[in-house]
Amino acid sequence: MEKAITRMAEGIGLERPRGLSAEDFERLVPEHQRRIHRVLMSVTRDTDLAETLTQECFIRAYRCRERYRGEASVETWLLRIAVNLAIDHRKSARHTFWERMRVWRRGQEGGVSARDEADPGTSVEETLVTRESAREVWEAAGGLPTRQRIVFSLRFGEEMSLEEIAETAQMEVGTVKAHLYRAIGALRKRLGERRP
Amino acid sequence: MNENHLTDDELAGVVVGAPSRRASDHLASCESCRTEESRMRSELKGFSEEYARQGERPEVFWAKQRAAVHARIERRRTVLWRLTWSTAAAATIMLGYLHFRSPASQPAPVVQDADQALLLDVERSLRRPVPAALEPAMILAAEIDRMASIEQVNEKGETQ
Questions:
Q1: What are the extents of the domains in chain B?
Q2: Of A36, A129, A185, A190, which is the most buried if we count CB atoms within 10 A?
């Protein structure tokens, strides 16, 4: 019976009633690495850090794979690990130092990175304007507090439902809404200030 | 025109997908709030597009990342494997040592042997005509007696 349940669960996805085998885990990385990296990129705004934390997320998941009980989907479970890693990292004093260094370096570079420059191949003005506007929103969202940024990224980047976000970020749905409202309010304010 | 425009939270509720009834009713009749809602949706769409763009990486990047994760897992497995084996080896050596060491140095039989020896010694002492400590004196006395008897024999011979 248990084998049948396991087989059924494996047929649907990777969920198993108890723990994840090493073979299951092999499949997790290629299946979820892009999403985990995207979320961490949006939360940390640092390419190297996002990559390091993505790796760390899978290593931590591997260590805890026996404890996975299938109460949440594998994706939610992984995202929860990623979100916790980002929060822990944010809290650490070491991060504060590197954050300051990065801000200082950006200031030295004039606040514009290579990625911020327009694509050389783009010739349509409208596309450029849309891209510029999208980048403005992205940059404005980067200034949100960590938890608001996490919730905002999961809602509007990953298009997750409020319940899924609540499960991932381990918050009440009401708290998720409150974070989103505050984030949207702050964004509107920042974007309003930038508008001519 | 409706003067009671939507508050920031009401408008946020609309774009988040949890609009209040008042917000829904108001939007149906207020052009200004609809424009604001539309602008907000467009900005959020922009965020979503940029979000996806920022996460784009070449396939090589993902392959490298997978390789790095696997390498770290393998390293961890190896360390755990070595740790298990070295612990097992240490435990085996310890058990072996304790097993082979114990018969040679068992204290109980030694005590038993000593007791046995003492008892034998006491028994032997009891069987002796004199205590062991007086044995030299007894030999000396026997020698004196022997010498005295020889002298007596000699004296008898001279007188006859």
A1: 8-56, 58-105, 109-160
A2: A36
Same domain for A97 and A144?
no
> CB contact, 8 Å: B100 with chain A?
no
Which residues 55-84 in chain B show a CB within 8 A of chain A? 55, 57, 62, 65-66, 68-70, 72-73, 76
Exposed / middle / buried, residue A9 (Cβ in 10 Å: 0-12, 13-18, 19+) = middle
ipTM: 0.72
Question: What's the number of domains chain A is made of?
Answer: 2
